[in-house]
Amino acid sequence: MATVTLRGVRKSFGGMEIIHGVDLDIDDNELTVFVGPSGCGKSTLLRLIAGLEDITSGEMTIDGVRVNDLPPKERGISMVFQSYALYPHMSVYDNMAFGLKLANGSKDAIDAKVREAARILQIENLLTRKPRELSGGQRQRVAIGRAIVREPKVFLFDEPLSNLDAALRVQMRIELAKLKEDLSATMVYVTHDQVEAMTLANKIVVLRAGHVEQVGSPLELYHHPRNLFVAGFIGSPKMNFLETVASDIGRDTATVKIPGGGTMAVPARTAGMAPGAKVTLGVRPEHLVPGEEGDSVMEGRVFVVERLGGETYCHVRVDGGQSVVIRTGGDSPVNPGEQVRIGVPAATCHLFDRDGIALDRVERHPLADLDMPRSATG
Amino acid sequence: MQARRIAGRVLFYLLAAAIIVYTVFPFYWAIVSSLKAGSALFQVEFWPANPAWDNYAGVFRGQPFARNILNSVVVSVAVVALSLFLALTASYALGRVQFRGRGTLLMVVLGVSMFPQVAVLSGMFELIRWLGLYNNLMGLILSYMIFTLPFTVWVLTTFMRELPKELEEAAIVDGASPWVIITRVFLPLMGPALATTGLLAFIAAWNEFLFALTFTLSNDMRTVPVAIALITGTSQFELPWGNIMAASVIVTVPLLVLVMIFQRKIVSGLTAGAVKG
Question: What is the pTM of this model?
Answer without folding.
Answer: 0.81
